[in-house]
Amino acid sequence: MSKKNLLLVFFILAKISLQYFLINPVYDLHRDEYLHLDQAKHLAWGYESVPPFTSWISWIILQLGDGVFWIKFFPALFGALTIVVVWKAVEVLKGNLFAMSLAATAVMFSVILRINILYQPNSFDILCWTFLYFVFIKYIQTNLAKWLWIAAITFAIGFLNKYNIVFELLGLLPAILLTKQRKLFLNKHFYISIALTILVILPNLIWQYQNNFPVVHHLKELSATQLVNVNRSDFLKEQLLFFLGSLFVLLAALISFVVYHPFKKYRVFGWAFLFTLTVFVYLKAKGYYAIGIYPIYMAFGAVYLEEKLSSGWKRYLRRLAILFIVVLFIPFFKIAFPVATPEQTQKDGKLLKDFGLLRWEDGKDHLLPQDYADMQGWRELAKKTDSAFDYIDDAGHTLVLCNNYGQAGAINYYSKYNNIGAVSMNADYINWFPLNEKNIKNVILVKDADDSDIGREREKLLFKTVSTWGKIENIYAREKGATIFMLRDATTSINQLLQQEIDKRKRNR
Q1: Which of 238, 379, 398, 410 has a Cα-to-Cα distance from 137 of 20 to 30 A?
Q2: What is the pLDDT of residues 437-447, one digit of tens each?
Q3: What is the span of the domain harbouring residue 59?
Q4: Do residues 266 and 347 share a domain?
Q5: Does one domain contain both 185 and 279?
């Protein structure tokens, strides 16, 4: 095996291994991970929250035993593959070992390391963005139609993973119009590739149509509850932090499109960078939506720097450049990753606050970063729900009804009952109620802390017995104070009432 390939294998193994050491074992899975895992048990061409690709990976994880090792393996793998694509991009741009190592280091020691600790569509989204850019580089070099077809498949798979990849095209297309690459619009294979893309994503589009386009409802809800708290200046500040140690590589890439003659034909990437960020800023997007832009530019920047540091004393700067990225990233391990316990993290609250990491989607500061709080309290909730389930001792007629998808998914994952079947009117769970499978007489109801007064008079009209069973006590959990209620011996048809509520919510979407 050549030295280049050995080094690439080292980066791959180091990347995957490192991901397993970035979360303290005291943390549970993240609320989003539970939802994605439950989708494996309800395979479809679309979901309320995401397209179907993640459910396919979840199905594989389920077949492998549904263990934490495999849940963490796939985002780590997608991160490693992102490094591979950047490595190969350096190769096709005529870079050598230093440029490959610099680009790989820049991608590894960046915000992507944080993204890859969670099983969410984001890791594969970044991989798809990077590979689509890579494919466009190959098309510019060769002008072969096959790269347009590969681009079509890449975009389609990326679309089936996360609709965010549409913004990559929104940045690329006007950039193509401004450069000599505009001749692409006269190529018949370009339109054939568009047809191929539509063919691949058509099942998801049909699903969206048949279900009244829940993605539109999801975007409206996102805009009303989360994006409304996004500040455009904060978005731009976050971009600087994402690849802080390798900003010089990114800057070198942008400069190279102007001054480096071999990259003259790639100037479309400079315009694409500007257009894509502009779209995100205009739409007040979350900062992490734009992360997929950056990895491919590390390849351009690394190749340009390799050429500039190729003679005399400047060659000694090569190792310093790689070392600089690693050393500058080391302090971020403590503040950007849940490696410490919640108690230890709280002690570093001022530092975290200075970096804006304690600010949640509600626009307020809290004890822990939101992602950390989203990994607390779930085992406690599942254990207490199981104890309520034990007490009722009537599984065939008992429904676990939760206020949100995190609660339902966590109970399903950690419960000692394989078929406890917790559901919610929130997210995809609204489609998974077992109303045709069981006659519901009892309900274990999980309510948020700010919604724990469930209107007992109403419940007493529906059930003979209404009582409080327990609540989440963990002060660091986002679900702190969430309360478990036991509703026993229904006096009316709960199935019918739930179906009416489901129909009402779907009509109002």
Answers
A1: 238
A2: 999 999 999 99
A3: 3-336
A4: no
A5: yes
Query: What's the token pair of residue 304?
Result: 């340009």
pTM over 0.70: yes
CA–CA separation, 74 and 36 (whole Å): 13
Q: How is the beta sheet containing 483-490 ordered, strand by strand?
A: 423-424, 398-402, 442-447, 483-490, 463-471
The tokens of 337 are what? Answer: 């990753």
**β pairing state of 423-424 and 463-471:** unpaired
Across the range 67-90, mean pLDDT stands at: 98
Cα 270 to the chain's mean position, in Å? Answer: 26
- Indicate if 251 and 276 belong to the same structural domain: yes
Same domain membership, residue 307 and residue 393: no
Closest CA to 134 of 77, 189, 78, 88: 88
Other beta carbons within 10 Å of 421:
22
- Domain count along the chain: 3
| In a shared domain, residues 391 and 495 | yes
Point out which residues pair with 490 in neighbouring strands.
463
* pLDDT tens digit sequence for 107-144: 999 999 999 999 999 999 999 999 999 999 999 999 99
Same domain (yes/no): 323, 431: no
Q: Based on the domain organization, do 358 and 450 belong to the same domain?
A: no
298 with 411, same domain? no
d(CA 359, CA 352): 9
Do 272 and 322 meet the contact criterion of CB atoms below 8 Å apart? Answer: no
What does the block give as tokens for 411?
């109970």
Region for residue 78 given its phi and psi (left: phi exceeds 0; alpha: psi -120 to 50; beta: otherwise):
alpha
Using an 8 Å Cβ cutoff, are 379 and 365 in contact? no
